[in-house]
């Protein structure tokens, strides 16, 4: 399949995508579906299905495989620690980061409006396509195909998460830290909400002793508050 031109963006051909990532795909229709956002269907009636069902499947496959990998890789970890680390490895931002590193954005089939609005860099969309590709890999080659694809990504990511304590709840850590210093509990305040209704981005700031110590952005208020708490912890640890 040749590369396509979608407005001012040249979409990477499936064969080039497969070759670049070293994937082993027999059913190219599955991969094409995994890279197709629902906005593309609105402008291309010949496209039969978007990637949302594959995203659903990939999410379940990832939960299982990441859990199994952690169980075998960290035999000394207790159940609670394993659960937190798995959550950190499959969270939206982490999966989107994997997609960015592999440059999935240039292979996405997006509607013109979504593409012009920056969809190729949108965190939620990149996370979704990563999960969809995992789902397609599972249907095409079984669990071993997914394992070969995902496990090389997990080792460095897990160690970075552990080193930066991203597997722990930053809001709880912040509250414990500031209360140990005699301050009241932190206050979280939503600064802004932008973007379309189905894909809003929230900005939240956290105040400690009536001063802003951190700001964060997320796809919901909870994620933004966690990011703000993480920023505040970094600020406090530097003081």
Note the main attributes of this structure:
239 residues; alpha+beta; Ribonuclease iii, N-terminal Endonuclease Domain, Chain A; Double Stranded RNA Binding Domain; 2 domains; two-stranded antiparallel ribbon; 11 helices; 13% strand
Quick rundown:
The protein has 239 residues and is an alpha+beta fold. It has helices spanning 14-21, 28-34, 38-43, 52-73, 79-89, 92-101, 112-116, 123-141, 143-163, 170-180, 221-238, and strands at 4-6, 9-11, 187-194, 201-208, 211-218.
Question: Would you write up a description of this structure?
Answer:
This protein has 239 residues and is of the alpha+beta class. The chain folds into 2 domains: 4-163, Ribonuclease iii, N-terminal Endonuclease Domain, Chain A (Orthogonal Bundle), CATH 1.10.1520.10; 170-238, Double Stranded RNA Binding Domain. It contains 11 helices and 5 strands, in the order ββααααααααααβββα. It has helices at 14-21, 28-34, 38-43, 52-73, 79-89, 92-101, 112-116, 123-141, 143-163, 170-180, 221-238; strands spanning 4-6, 9-11, 187-194, 201-208, 211-218. The model has no long low-confidence stretch (mean pLDDT 89).
What form results from the Cα inertia axes?
A: flat
CATH superfamily of the largest domain, by name, is Ribonuclease III domain
Query: In what range is the share of β-strand residues?
Result: 5-15%
Radius of gyration: 20 Å
pLDDT averaged over residues: 89
Number of domains: 2
The CATH C-level class name of the largest domain: Mainly Alpha
Number of helices: 11
Could you estimate the helical fraction of the residues in percent? 55-70%
């Amino acid at each position: 399949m040749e590369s396509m031109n979608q407005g001012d963006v040249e979409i990477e051909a499936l064969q080039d995508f497969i070759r670049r990532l070293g994937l082993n795909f027999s059913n190219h229709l599955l991969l094409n579906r995994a890279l197709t956002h629902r906005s593309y269907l609105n402008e291309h009636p010949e496209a039969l299905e978007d990637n949302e069902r594959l995203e659903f499947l990939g999410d379940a496959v990832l939960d299982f495989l990441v859990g199994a990998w952690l169980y075998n890789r960290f035999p000394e970890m207790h159940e609670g620690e394993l659960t937190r680390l798995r959550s950190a490895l499959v969270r939206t931002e982490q999966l989107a980061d994997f997609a960015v590193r592999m440059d999935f954005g240039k292979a996405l089939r997006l509607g013109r409006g979504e593409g012009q609005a920056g969809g190729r860099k949108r965190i939620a969309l990149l996370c979704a396509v990563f999960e969809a590709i995992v789902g397609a890999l599972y249907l095409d080659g079984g669990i071993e195909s997914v394992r070969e694809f995902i496990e090389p990504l997990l080792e460095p990511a897990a160690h970075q998460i552990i080193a930066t304590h991203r597997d722990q709840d930053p809001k709880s850590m912040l509250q414990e830290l500031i209360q140990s210093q005699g301050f009241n509990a932190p206050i979280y305040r939503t600064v802004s909400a932008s973007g379309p209704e189905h894909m809003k981005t929230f900005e939240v700031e956290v105040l400690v002793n009536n001063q802003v110590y951190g700001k964060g952005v997320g796809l919901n208020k909870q994620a933004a508050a966690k990011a703000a708490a993480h920023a505040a912890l970094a600020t406090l640890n530097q003081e």
